[in-house]
Design goal:
By secondary structure, the protein is of the alpha/beta class. The chain has 12 helices and 13 strands. It has 2 domains: 6-263, 3-Layer(aba) Sandwich (Carbamate kinase); 272-365, PUA domain (Archaeosine Trna-guanine Transglycosylase, Chain: A, domain 4). It binds adenosine-5'-diphosphate and ligand VHF. It is found in: Cytoplasm.
């Protein structure tokens, strides 16, 4: 971490809130002091900060964190401005300019948006500002939403080719089980996915302010390390120590494989299929072996309701998910295309039906990736 020149730091709601779930300005100031010290040492910092919902609670008279999406969004839109105002003031005391950046899943997914986000963030760093990123909660829907900022932070780290990702929470490390249980031990280092076998990775903390819990933090570390970005998970109180290279928290070592695209990372880890397309054995072989596109001829069944552009799971006849991809058709269109050659479809239905069900560029193999359920609301 000491040699890192560009660091993405993610801080969760649990680290920024008081015991009754409201925003804690002292915590914001402490964190800002630590980050400003690194900026003074010429380290570029991108802060991914949760806390908009928490900051919106007091002004709206809410005593507990809202559970329904509409109230969460209302609280986030009230709170986001206040949250950034706290950061702006705290960074200004160090002579630094804070910049608000709100991102959606689409901004990570769609090429043009993605480039735009990359350009803006890079420019902000060039001019010496500190970007403060959060999910654009007000426009996010249940279906297309990160919900937590852990995975968003990993995708931002990948997008900016950061040298390190620091995930700050209310717990000082990943433990081999719920840290509130006596006898659980800190995991100092994760080098391979196998190092996590048998680890009880639990959900959000008992105070109920965080969203993803350890599950999304470990997922985030996996996304970042697959993209070649070393990741440290520790508490906000340890932020300075972690940035100074002290052996705190849990270190996730980067993989040495070729860096996947953001879209591939997103498809594999940050989303869930909106439906399923069942492939015949030949199509499974072609997709798995030859990294081919999925053509209508190889589809035998379609399940669920989805629209063109949605992520779907590609399954074999035994129901095993082998890949995930961005589908080019609505679910309702596929039964008329199944089993047909693209040439037949073009001749009978028109040239627009010559396209693949899933193009190889929008497809990622999942054989090594454990299945996960839909993103947390
Ligand atoms: N194996 C584990 N190791 C560490 N913490 C865990 C583990 N399992 C569950 N947790 C819980 O995850 C919580 C952090 O997640 P969360 O509340 O979502 O935080 P944040 O708001 O920082 O994203 C911790 O407070 C802890 O109670
Ligand atoms: N975008 C939301 C983040 C939701 C959340 O709680 O995330 P986290 O604390 O990172 O699990 C907010 O700012 O409140």
């Amino acid at each position: 971490m000491t040699r890192a020149r560009r660091v993405v730091v993610k801080v969760g709601s649990s680290s920024l809130t008081t015991h009754d779930g409201r925003i804690d300005r002292d915590r914001i100031r402490e964190l800002t002091d630590v980050l400003a010290a690194r900026r003074a040492a010429d380290v570029e910092i991108v802060l991914v900060s949760s806390g908009a919902v928490a900051a919106g609670m007091t002004p709206l008279g809410l005593v507990t964190r809202p559970r329904d999406l509409a109230t969460q969004q209302a609280a986030a839109s009230v709170g986001q401005g206040l949250l950034v105002a706290h950061y702006t003031r705290a960074f200004a005391d160090h002579g630094l300019t804070a910049a608000q950046v709100l991102l959606t899943v689409d901004d990570m997914m769609r090429r043009a948006h993605h480039r735009n986000a990359q350009r803006t963030l890079t420019r902000l760093l060039d001019i010496g500002a500190v970007p403060i990123v959060n999910e654009n909660d007000t426009v996010a829907t249940h279906e297309i939403r990160f919900g937590d900022n852990d995975r968003l932070a990993a995708l931002v780290a990948h997008l900016l080719r950061a040298d390190a990702l620091l995930l700050l929470s209310d717990v000082d490390a990943l433990y081999d089980g719920d840290p509130s249980r006596p006898g659980t031990r800190r995991i100092a280092e994760v080098r391979e996915p196998e190092d996590l076998e048998g680890v009880d990775i639990g959900s959000a903390g008992r105070r109920g302010v965080g969203t993803g819990g350890m599950v999304t933090k470990v997922e985030s570390a996996r996304i970042a390390t697959e993209a070649g970005v070393p990741t440290i998970l520790t508490s906000a109180a340890n932020a300075g120590a972690a940035l100074d290279g002290e052996p705190v928290g849990t270190f996730f070592a980067p993989a040495r494989r070729r860096r996947p695209s953001t879209r591939q990372l997103w498809l594999a880890h940050a989303t869930a299929g909106r439906g399923r397309v069942v492939l015949d054995p030949g199509a499974v072989r072609a997709v798995l072996g030859g990294r081919a596109s999925l053509l209508p001829a190889g589809v035998i069944k379609v399940e669920g309701e989805f629209s063109a552009g949605d992520p779907v799971d590609l399954c074999d006849e035994d129901g095993r998910t082998v890949a995930r991809g961005l589908v080019n058709y609505d679910a309702a269109e596929i039964p008329n295309l199944m089993g047909r050659s693209t040439r037949w479809l073009a001749r009978e239905l028109g040239p627009e039906y010559e396209r693949e069900i899933v193009h190889r560029d929008g497809l990622v193999l999942l054989s090594r990736t454990p299945r996960r359920s839909a993103p947390a609301p």
